[in-house]
Amino acid sequence: MPTIPLHQRPLAPSSSAQDSNPLPPLLRTPSGLALLELQGDIRFPPAAAQASTQVGKLMFPLYNPDLNGEDDTKWMKKVYLYVGKNQRMAGEVKKLGKPFAVIRKKESADSEDVVMGGAEAASTGEELEIVEIVKYKILFATRPEPVGGGVEETV
């Protein structure tokens, strides 16, 4: 059976590691990455020349670590996803039953790491690393509500 080495992420991420993080910033919450669960469809504009499409803006109106402290979880009760200029979805952050790991291929092998898989693992050349452990999901169970009064401009 083939094996692939799996490396842990660094305990103290450097600032350059966060700047080069390939994961979407839309899914970042104050507690880390989260799944996004929607009850419906998001309709995207026609394909553009951009590599990625911004769906909207994720906001946590009750999150204030300076006022409430880092351990406060009241911010999880209210989350807004603004889609375009005219729609807002209200939701909340829920804890997953079982956390799971987000992994990716490791770009370069570190000489400090010890390969635990024996000769098979060394011959594959592939290595994986844990990017983050996902413990929460953002649940939007209601339909979007209209906000604002203008029509979105098309360019």
TrEMBL record:
Species of the source: Paraphaeosphaeria minitans
Keyword DNA-binding: yes
GO CC term (a single one): Ctf18 RFC-like complex
Localization per Swiss-Prot or TrEMBL: Nucleus
Region (Disordered): 1-24
Any one Gene Ontology molecular-function term assigned to this protein's record: DNA binding
Protein name per Swiss-Prot or TrEMBL: Ctf8
Keywords: Cell cycle, DNA replication, DNA-binding, Nucleus
Pfam family, one: Ctf8
Record-linked PANTHER family: CHROMOSOME TRANSMISSION FIDELITY FACTOR 8, CTF8, CHROMOSOME TRANSMISSION FIDELITY FACTOR 8 HOMOLOG (S. CEREVISIAE)
GO process terms (BP): DNA replication; mitotic sister chromatid cohesion
Coiled coil feature spans: none
Family membership noted in the UniProt record: Belongs to the CTF8 family.
